[in-house]
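Troubleshooting entry. The earlier prediction with calcium ion gave an output that would not parse, so I re-checked the input for stray whitespace and re-submitted. Clean input:
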Amino acid sequence: MSRILIIEDEERIASFVAKGLKAAGFQPTIAATGLEGGYLAQTGEFELIILDLGLPDEDGFSVLARIRSTDTETPVIILTARSSIDDTVAGLENGADDYMAKPFRFEELLARVRLRLRPQATVAEDQVIRFGPLELDASSRRTRLDGREIDLSAREFGLAEAFMRNPGQVLSREQLLSRVWGYDFDPGSNVVDVYVRYLRNKIGAEWFTTVRGMGYRFEEPV
Ligand code: CA
């Protein structure tokens, strides 16, 4: 299980990233300041570091410089609200491995995390998930029911994957929203209900149970 350090002062984003990483089988730790983050990074206990550039006590770049002065190996992914290409290029030149511009969807960050981790550490979760006749292949992004391919849009696929990785568990609209649509999405939106309806139409209503006042549960029908 890979340990990942998240250096991010904005609590909403830090917890959104941490929850997603935990669900994907990683072990996240949050640091809310450059001082704490830089210190933790230098303990050498983390396989990957996610670093926000806009920290309250110092610039993310100076934290990065401190990390890189002793550790040139651990991959660092920068989170930045600054969309200017100059900052990004500067970050990559200063020893960051990749970057994400905010706002981002969790799945995009997860893909970068997996890419940057050593190959043996990336098998955090299975690529093919099966429940009886239903099969989802996360690498080829294909879904099959009774051996027949189901045509799902990217969002439908993301939602199906979120359900299939948490079978039997009630997932709230909020959890599904942040997992599939991103933290910047309006929590009052009914988009989750709309997409669950799409999945029910394509896969079968019996797979998705509405849990009143709580959310939805995915289960193999008996
Ligand atoms: Ca920040």
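This one parsed fine. The two ends are 33 Å apart (CA to CA).
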